[in-house]
Amino acid sequence: MARADDHRTVTMRSSPLPPPRCVVVVLLLLLPLPLPLLSLLSAINVASAATAAAPLKFGINYGQIANNLPHPAQVSGLLQSLNVNRVKLYDADPAVLTAFAGTGVEFIVGNEDLFNLTDARKARAWVAQHVQPFLPGTRITCITVGNEVLSGKDTAAMQSLLPAMQAVYQAVVALGLAGQVNVSTAHSVNILASSYPPSSGAFREELAEYIQPILNFHAEVGSPFLINAYPFFAYKASPGTVSLPYVLFEPNAGVVDPNTNLTYDNMLYAQIDAVYAAMKAMGHTDLTVRISETGWPSKGDDDEVGATVANAAAYNGNLMKRIAMGQGTPLKPRVPVDVFVFALFNEDMKPGPTSERNYGLFYPNGTQVYNLGFDGAAFSPSSPTYSSSSKLPAITFQMAVVVLLAGFFL
């Protein structure tokens, strides 16, 4: 479990509304409309006449370890309403990739079958079957090979990780996709031996033999270094010593790095800069760190301190405000933080503690998990015939999403 002083975390990711139109209009007329909400309303396609809003500068993880999720066509409509333009999958689900064709949404797809991917022929066959046919209709921009492999205990998987990444990249090149698709892998932040102060960030010594050549690979092919970081775990492990405002991006005195005199007012940015410091210690200042997962659970077991709706809304809402500002970290102020929030839906079949099943921004029926003032009816998750061109569901759902976004930006 994480120590409070170095912010290490342990993650368990594998992956990872239509009331009558008149009712929605009346509700909106009755609600006081702050300026951010008015600006969002003007950007959404209500009555098929508005100008599209600029995409929000964050991605979202679309996990599917559940038996009650809506059809991908419904999810496509939801994300277009949210103006989210980047999605990360843990596989390459053809139903999802087909549903998003022509939307412009960028996808990261994944494959965790490391041992087969080390075979060049099998790697090429997988890319040819699961990636190439969907391009360019669906924008697939990255393939992740494995997930948090180096934080596990499977040494055979660790040894296979880089060869699998190389084989997949070679397949991408051979199929003429190198200009569109890059190759990476996602790591847990607990591959760091320490992360506090951020300038002392260093990778675990026993992982150096794996990480150094992976960093060299990223530099050679120009792909980002992906990190899954959850300040929730540090707070859960030591709520008496870890400041809740510090992990929730709320006002606090901050923490000064004595080696750089840089001040950090939140843990996530400190973790990102610790990764930069760890890479620098291995001779790499030429790579970009991206957060492939971060989030906060809205519910947990009795011993999961901090797993509440209020904290989840604060963490994700405050983070999205920062992302919308194009803010960088103290060490890299000119490099906007790049984040994929975990996750789109609560996933009822995930193993582990209760928190693992409660990271979603939405329930599977399409209603938002956080109470932001809109009590809309749920859409049917079982209907595969939903289309974003179906005017009534699209319009009313957009209204719900406006209120969700307003909560994030207010």
Q: Secondary-structure element sequence?
A: HHEHEHEHHEHEEEHEHHEEHEHEH
- Tell me the structural class: alpha/beta
**Order of strands side by side in the largest beta sheet?**
1-2-3-4-5-8-11-12
How many discrete structural domains? 1
Task: Walk me through the structure.
By secondary structure, the protein is α/β, with parallel strands linked by helices. It has a single domain, classed as TIM Barrel (Alpha-Beta Barrel), CATH 3.20.20.80. Helices cover 35% and strands 12% of the residues. The protein has 13 helices and twelve strands. The strands form three sheets. An eight-stranded parallel beta barrel has the order 1-2-3-4-5-8-11-12. It has a two-stranded antiparallel ribbon with strand order 6-7. Helix 2 (35-42) packs antiparallel against helix 13 (391-409), helix 3 (72-82) packs across helix 13 (391-409) and helix 6 packs across helix 7 (155-174). The radius of gyration is 21 Å and the shape is globular. The two termini are 35 Å apart. The relative contact order is 0.17. Mean pLDDT is 82; it is low at 1-54 and 372-410. Belongs to the glycosyl hydrolase 17 family. InterPro entries: GH, Glyco_hydro_17, Glyco_hydro_17_plant. Its EC number is 3.2.1.39. Keywords: Glycosidase, Hydrolase, Signal. It catalyses: Hydrolysis of (1->3)-beta-D-glucosidic linkages in (1->3)-beta-D-glucans.
